[in-house]
Every structure is written in C-alpha cells, then in structure tokens.
Amino acid sequence: MFLTTTDRKLKRIELRLVAELMKNSRKSDRELAKILGISQPTVTRIRNKLEREGVIREYTAIPDFSKLGYEILAIILALSKSLDKNQAEKARKILLEDAKDKVFGFIMVERGIGSGFDGVIVSLHRDYTSFQQLMTWLRQLDFLEIEKTQFFLVDLNETVRYRPLTLSAIARHIEQQAEK
Fold first, then answer.
1. 3-class DSSP state for residue 162?
2. Residue 105 in 3-state DSSP?
C-alpha cells in the first residue's frame, strides 16, 4: 500500500526519500543518493518535485524544548460552535494571524473528532502563566465553547521521559510501507 497525495500515489523511491529526510533533513543529496542507490541528480529532481507538490512542506530541527526555556506542552481539546463557511474562515485567520504576537507558541491547531470534541490545540509555554494567558485568550474567541474545553499538560522538565517527540518512528513506518 502506498501513501497518496491528492493527485497520485507516491512511488517507493519517493517514500524512501521522505523517510530518510524525516530521520535527518541535513543529509545532502549525495548522501541520500548513496543510501537510496540512485544518482544525486535523481534525488534532487525527486526532492524538488515532492516540495512542489507539498509532500515535503519544510525542513526543520526538533529541539529539546525544555533546553529552550519551555516548561509546559499543552494539549487542549476544544469544541467549536457550528460555523458557516465565513465564520470558519474568520476563525482560521484568527488562529493563524492574531495568535502570532501572543506569548504562547502554537505547534498545531487542527479540526478533528473524538471524545466529544472537534478540535485540538498543541502549544508550548515557558511557564504556567503563559498557559493561563492562552486559556484567557481562548475564552474571548466567540467560535469556541470554552466551558467544554479540556486540557492535558506535559511537564517538559520531567526527568522520566517515555518517548520524546521524534519523526524517526514514523519514518520507519513509511519505509515499511514502501517495501510492501
């Protein structure tokens, strides 16, 4: 089974390239070519194609957030009110643009379904005060039913860590899918 984009199925070599980049996005095209057993120009061409198609959105590092001064990772389950298309676009704009200047850092804000909620917010905070400021800000948004919001806080300074954030496990899964 292959993962798909909106237009086409990804080829095995494309999946393998994505997996290698997820494990370490600093690898050069030459290194990737050696690992994948193809030429460097072929790697460059495939990578550029995947970027154009939006399969690869960005190249990034995953830091130890506690070493950057963040103490809390918040996972917030939210319930939005019924929104028409214009209201939904306004809500999206607020979450994308207006939140940029706030003291909390959104990692992800997405719609979904489960446990009676239809949205999730994942954010980083330097301290509990920053988290409280986020909750106060969310209460002001007329498209959320804030009284039905629940959250789970992760102490990033906790010494016992079960599995810190990494994309390597997902990369291995993609590699397994590419082999099928």
1. coil
2. strand
| Residue carrying the six token digits 């929104």 | 83
Indicate whether 16 and 90 sit together in one domain. no
- Expressed as residue numbers, the domain containing 104 is 65-155
pLDDT at 4: 47
Per run of 10 residues, the mean pLDDT along the chain (length 180 residues) is 58 94 95 97 96 93 92 92 80 76 78 87 93 89 80 93 84 86
Cα 133 to Cα 8: distance, rounded to the nearest angstrom: 43
Q: Mention every residue, 6+ apart, whose C-beta is less than 8 A from residue 136.
A: none
Q: Which two tokens stand for residue 133?
A: 């400021």
For residue 74, which phi and psi values (nearest 5 degrees)? -110, 135
* Residues 163, 61: Cα–Cα separation, whole Å: 17
User: Do residues 178 and 12 touch, judged by C-beta distance below 8 A?
Assistant: yes
pLDDT at 49: 95
Q: 66: which residues sit within 8 A by CB, 6+ positions away?
A: 156, 157
Q: How far apart are CA 74 and CA 127, in angstroms?
A: 11
Shared domain for 47 and 69, answered yes or no, is: no
